[in-house]
Every structure is written in structure tokens, then in C-alpha cells.
Amino acid sequence: xxxxxxxEREKVTREALARVSHxxxxxxxxxxxxxxxxxxxFSDGILIPFDKFMRWSRQMNTDYADLTEREKDSDREQAxxxxxxxxxxx
Length: 90
What we know:
Helix content: 55-70%
Order of helices and strands: HHH
Shape: elongated
Oligomer: single chain
Number of strands: 0
Number of helices: 3
Largest sheet: none
Structural class: mainly alpha
Strand content: under 5%
């Protein structure tokens, strides 16, 4: 969604949905990491690259407001999907 084409109300809604999207993602990541063994062997499951583990750990423990604009853009993409779905239903 082009932010320049959004009304002020839509911009506020988009940011609220992006924040909620981040909270949902962070909740899922905390759960997923909580059930991981930490000593996973290749035959037992998957191996998450260390750099991704570190980045995701930081992001899941960071409030939406404190993310970088680039990181917020990922959540905004999810918010855009929600807004389009809602517009189609109304």
C-alpha cells in the first residue's frame, strides 16, 4: 500500500494493525523458542542459523515503536493485507 495515498485515519489504522501484527509474531516466536531444545541435532529437527536466531530474539523482545523503520515495514506489509481483507468485506 502506498502510504502517500492513505488518509490520516488509514495511516493510524495501518500503524495499529502493524503493532498488533508484531505482537502476534513476537508471541509466536517466544512460544516457538520456548519449546526448542537448544541442542537439536540435524536428524531431530531443524537448525536455525545463529545470525537469524539473534536477530529474531532481539526483535521479539523489542516493542513495535522501538523497531527500525525497515523492521516496521515488515509488520506494515502484514497490516496492509489485513486492511485489504477488511475493505473487501465492508
